């Protein structure tokens, strides 16, 4: 009889242990699902912030400066001299600093998995590529003056973006883009020539 009770006790213990394991496994699944939801919400918020930053009026103004004015200004001695000031240069004059800082910060987020690169690249790949390629000389001067590797996260962002572009539809050729813009704009009279025609 004691043997029967011991056997029943062992069976009940096994049932309790099995139920506990099943319940624990279910709780682990629920916790993993909750953590994934939190991760997605955090990624969404971080991506949203980055995308808003890249659409901000100050960023867009600085991007236009890099795209339209930087090459000509780099030919002027005063501007070029102040490039060596790196972060001490007046960022109202040296608007390229805003772009460098923004993309270096975003590169940090992407590099360390705080923001998924796909989200940024699917919307702003051309700005990343154009900016980096137009800023190569400035970046080189900053690195030469500082004596240390600078803007490694901007460089990572650029290289990772180029890899993403190659895998998702092709690379951007800045020279070809500039040529197509000039060809398209040449179809229309400029505002000054149109005003003189009246």
Order of helices and strands: HHHHHHHHH
Query: Strand content of the residues, in percent?
Result: under 5%
Principal-axis shape: elongated
Domains (count): 2
In this structure, how is the largest beta sheet organized? none
| Estimated helix fraction | over 70%
- The DSSP helix count reads 9
How far the N terminus sits from the C terminus, by CA atoms, comes to 116 Å
Rg (C-alpha, Å) = 28 Å
Assembly type: single chain
- Given helix and strand content, the structural type is mainly alpha
Low-confidence stretches: none
Q: What is the number of strand segments?
A: 0
Question: Mean pLDDT, rounded to whole units?
Answer: 86
Explain what this protein looks like in three dimensions:
With 198 residues, this protein is an all-alpha fold. It has 2 domains: 1-39; 56-186, no CATH class. It contains 9 helices and no strands. 18% of the residues are buried. The model has no long low-confidence stretch (mean pLDDT 86).
Summarize the structure.
The protein has 9 helices and no strands. With 198 residues, the protein is mainly alpha-helical.
Q: Secondary-structure blueprint of this entry?
A:
Blueprint lengths: L1 H54 L1 H12 L1 H5 L2 H7 L12 H16 L5 H30 L5 H16 L6 H12 L5 H6 L2
Kindly list the characteristics that best describe this protein.
elongated; single chain; 198 residues; 9 helices; mainly alpha; 2 domains; 0% strand
